[in-house]
From TrEMBL, chain A:
GO terms for cellular component: plasma membrane. InterPro entries: AAA+_ATPase, ABC_Ni/Peptide_Import, ABC_transporter-like_ATP-bd, ABC_transporter-like_CS, P-loop_NTPase. The keyword Secreted does not apply. This is Peptide/nickel transport system ATP-binding protein.
UniProtKB/TrEMBL annotation, chain B:
One of its GO terms (cellular component) is plasma membrane. Keywords: Cell membrane, Membrane, Transmembrane, Transmembrane helix, Transport. InterPro entries: BPD_transp_1_N, MetI-like, MetI-like_sf. This is Peptide/nickel transport system permease protein. GO terms for biological process: transmembrane transport.
Amino acid sequence: MKPYLSIRNLCVTLKHGAPILRSVSLDVSAGQVHGLVGESGAGKSMIGKAVLGTLPRALHIRSGEIWLDGVDLLTLPLQERRKRIGATAALIPQDPLTALNPSRRIGPQITKRLVDILGWHKNAAEDRALDLLAEVHIPDPARVMRSYPHELSGGMRQRILIASAFAAEPKLIIADEPTTALDVTVQKQILRLIADMQARHGTALLFVTHDLGVVSKVCDTLSVLYAGKVVEDARMQRFFMRPVHPYSAALLAATPTYTNPTGSLKPVPATVIEDVETEVQQHDMRAGL
Amino acid sequence: MTLLRLILLRILTTAITLFGVAVIVFVVIRVVPGNPIAMMLPPGATDADIARLQAQYGFDKSIFEQFIIWLGGVMQGDFGTSISLRQPVSMLVLGRLPATLELSIFALVIAVIIGGMMALTGTRYRDTKTEGAIDVTAGMALSVPDFLWGLVLILLFGVLWPVFHISGRISPSLNIDFTTNFYVFESLLRLRFDVWLDLLSHMFMPALALAIPLAAIIAQLLKQSLKETMHLDYVTLARTKGYGEHHVITREALPNAILPTLTLVGVQFTFLIGGTVIIERLFSYEGLGNMAIDAVINRDLPLIQGIVILFALLFTLVNLAVDMLYVVLNPRLRHA
Ligand SMILES: Nc1ncnc2c1ncn2[C@@H]1O[C@H](COP(=O)(O)OP(=O)(O)OP(=O)(O)O)[C@@H](O)[C@H]1O
Ligand SMILES: [Mg+2]
């Protein structure tokens, strides 16, 4: 099947040339969940931001293609690119406490863009928001629509953001560590909720996380990222049975829930790090960086 | 509830503030040299004449007694009689107040428009030469006080390129019989747009002089908080929803970035009102400030007192308005 999102040889650098993403290629098929794992600073978030057009100003895309629904986003003029992303993709952010506008009621934060940008009728947008809030198990959606963000708990806000992400029936959702900012007890519920919503709506999901345990629960395919380079791209079952790249294997071994349930963390061995660093350097040489 | 408590508390502190101001002004203008009575009498007046008038205005009593008498009058709405103009102070002062209010508010509007545009443009084109140019302009505007801007404007638009009026409040030929002293307001209500435009073109230069430093402050502070807000997650999220940069700045970031600026504008607006004293003089604008300078020159003690109290009242009212606006605009305070 043709992938819904296809990133081809994406190179992102700092303005003065230091590489952040090194020829990243990955595919997310329609209706599938693709995990993106790697340690902190590997560039997971930057991949999501590159797709959504929200890279920090210090970074720029040097080369590559980002195909979304059959169109290479990078060939579109900025305004059109944003419109297209708004109509076909959505983001579930990491921190629900900062991702809602504090001076606006919840209702308009979900409905306004449906009206403004997608041309929905106001009543239709409101009905849609009420339905979605109910779908993410928010009690008394009508009251919540009239609330301000600070009146709601973090878990509630993340549910709202999930509802909002699904509002326009996007074909692709990018979730960037959607549970790390939450209470451990709430984390599981939210994770389940995202998986349920994804399955019900048949959305393609790019799921960013550093937790392989989470990946094993929700993903169909995954990419392992190290220093902005994809070191392994695999289907789930195969990956957990036989990881190909030594770095992936070490990462898997370092995940307590999977190989040794007692929970002692094994660091990635230094030799493995050395090898993967050499690979990164070889890539940079070839790319002339 | 919060609003009511806030207002009651404010009325109390306002009363205390005004009392303090009254005491200070009362003492200071009586301690500085210069005899108001001597100044209003012809050169040949005898000491007996002076003493008689002193007694008539109560200046022969001790400062403390004078204050009590004055305060008693104020309680009944009587601020005394102007020595130089021989009319009730309250009437004189309230007659001039509208002119100063109109000038100050016009200046505030200009400052908010210019400063706001600069901040929005600077945010839209942040980290480019445009932002640099805006920073330099604001820095220059700030380093020169309002009365010097007044002189510059008089030179530029009064002398070199005379397109605006630089003196007075209204062209004498257009002076329709106003029933109030809110000329701008009244001419609008009476649909006399010719008069209205004439008033604005008289006010424009002095108002601009008052507005320039405030506009620069607004530009700097608002741009700073806008730029900080632009990094926040909800702004990024709005971008992914397909909104353009203009919408993101004005609708998502601005309502949250505006609060610190609002507080500062409140404080600065009281400075601006203070600035009218010299600016009105410079542009021969018949307002409270101009009258204040005459009153000081003439040592017209009752009039000075009245004007200062009115200015002080104005300042506290502005601060109250800002505090209330702050509560209204900030949902977190409103429900607290
Ligand atoms: N605004 C920025 N300016 C310069 N470099 C940046 C900026 N933002 C991120 N980076 C760099 O980009 C690299 C990738 O960052 P990214 O946020 O994608 O990591 P991540 O894999 O999401 O990590 P985490 O798990 O901590 O979220 C990091 O090395 C970081 O230093
Ligand atoms: Mg990240």
